Amino acid sequence: MMRPDQWHPADGLTLEPNALSAVTMTAENVVVAAGPGAGKTELLAQRADFLLRTGQCPYPRRILAVSFKVDAARNLRERVRRRSGSRLASRFDSFTFHAFAKRLIDNYRPALTGYNALKPDYRIDPRDRIQGEQITFQDLVPLALEIIEANAYARGGIRQTYSHVFLDEVQDCTGQQYRLIKAAFGGTTAVLTAVGDTKQRIMAWAGALDGVMHTFANDFSARPLPLYQNFRSAPRLRRMQNRMIALMDPAAVSPRNDLIGEDGVIDVLGFDTEHDEAHALAELIDGWLRDGTPPSEIAVLVRQQPHLVAATLGSALANRGVAFRNEQESQELTAEPAAALVLNFIRVIADDRQPEAYTELMRTAARPSAPEDEATRYNGRLKRMVGNVRAEVRGPQFRSEDPTAWRTLVHEFLNLVSRPVLTSMSTGYQQGTRLDDVIEDALTAFGRELALDGRPIQALRRLSEADAVRFLTIHKCKGLEFDKVVVLGVEEELFWGNATAAISEFFVAVSRAKRHLVLTHAQHRDRPAAATSVWYVQRTPHQQFLDFARADSS
């Protein structure tokens, strides 16, 4: 343990003064207003490192971080592990609001009564609620709120557990989510750090509070600290963002001298049809990959319905052998430890060139708490099984194009790993059918991808964050960054509705790019067979948004 004045940012990073103040605050609540690329996630990771290393968060108390997206929660968790090491990071809990609410429900479920009472093996369903047996994701936060507001034992338990609380993207808090945090930690000794950016407030459709950062500052007597620097984007991209900021939040405009430089590329590409667009973009993306850009550094962003709007581009990429994955289907799955275990097992037995997957597989499936001789015997059995299954997969009788064949091998492997080891991977697996649901989701996703071409390695690439170009909605890209970003369909028919919400979403999209931003629009988009709502065939370029990119004369 070190004194606070001995601590320095991990990895030799230099923080701007306000960021350093927020990181090293000891007893004061803080609300940090920061634009894209200002390092909000890194600020929280460094703050966790400071609190853990200096004993400001004393053992056995913990730090709670609540984010809105699965990727953001996982990214923060991994950064803290890299900054602080596994031992200290084991006292850092990084959840989405839904995951945090589920943790509360699982720990204090008997506090729910009447219609909301739940059986120990309750399930979560995307749509339907069955009294006592099944709830939806939308029920999680209200039920957790009921527990915290009505049960003093639950409130005391959560307050004794966490000495510090982080709120990421606080501008997107809904009323119930904010009430949950306030009920759990308002008026306590817990120290709260909230970060957000009102220019990126894109969750108004889901009930995000207006002015929540100001409300938080008042309710928790939090000190406001703005961050000004954008460390993500190249100067040319920052100038475009600055033109948007001048319209959205004039007080936050950066001085012109801070944006000098010609680094960065912005392309505005117009097409007659989505087929012309797909052909040109597939060629462009294929060229980026051949030039050495990792697939994980390329993203295609769509305001909504990427499975429809980007379907033609997906077909064009598939024809070139370029792996891509639709994050609308895969993003949350890859954050599940059980799903990662299943896919790593398939990866290891299907492809000899997977040392990282093999290492992670053996680490995850290990039994560190078992006696040494028992653990050694188990590891030997696990290695022999993997070797035998590898040989079977390469044999003439194995039907590699058949999802059922892989499913059989996965269940044999999971039986060897054992149920206790699997349930220990996540607290959510210790109750109900969540573990079985995640395993089934992973196998279904693999089967869906395998059905496209019958090639297991290609199917795994399409499910991988590292090996596939990612298709995301703007809502799912919050907190992420990529070297090259394509915003598909900058058209009035896609960026419709409330003007403030539309420009906020467009700002989020363009600010994901570090060096190369491509904006496209088409005059005609055929109606997909799967479209079930209004679809405009004739399209109109969104001139206001495109002009932000074209006006680089400042």
Overview of this protein structure:
- The protein is built from 23 helices and 14 strands.
- The strands form three sheets. It has a six-stranded parallel beta sheet with strand order 3-2-6-7-1-8, sandwiched between helices. A six-stranded parallel beta sheet has the order 9-14-13-10-12-11, sandwiched between helices.
- It has 554 residues and is of the alpha/beta class.
Radius of gyration: 24 Å
Question: For the report, how would you describe the main beta sheet?
Answer: 6 strands, parallel
Shape: globular
Number of helical regions = 23
| Structural class designation | alpha/beta
Q: What separation lies between the terminal Cα atoms? A: 50 Å
Number of distinct beta strands: 14
Outline:
By secondary structure, this protein is an alpha/beta fold. The protein has 23 helices and 14 strands.
Label this structure with key terms.
single chain, 554 residues, alpha/beta, 6-stranded parallel β-sheet
Please give the structural blueprint.
Elements: H1 17-24, E1 30-34, H2 40-53, E2 62-67, H3 70-84, H4 86-89, E3 92-96, H5 97-108, E4 123-125, E5 134-136, H6 137-150, H7 152-161, E6 162-167, H8 175-185, E7 191-196, H9 212-219, E8 223-227, H10 235-248, E9 265-273, H11 274-290, E10 298-302, H12 306-309, H13 311-319, E11 324-326, H14 327-334, H15 337-350, H16 355-365, H17 372-393, H18 403-417, H19 419-423, H20 434-453, H21 456-463, E12 469-473, E13 482-487, H22 499-510, E14 513-524, H23 543-550
Parallel strand pairs: 1-7, 1-8, 2-3, 2-6, 4-5, 6-7, 9-14, 10-12, 10-13, 11-12, 13-14
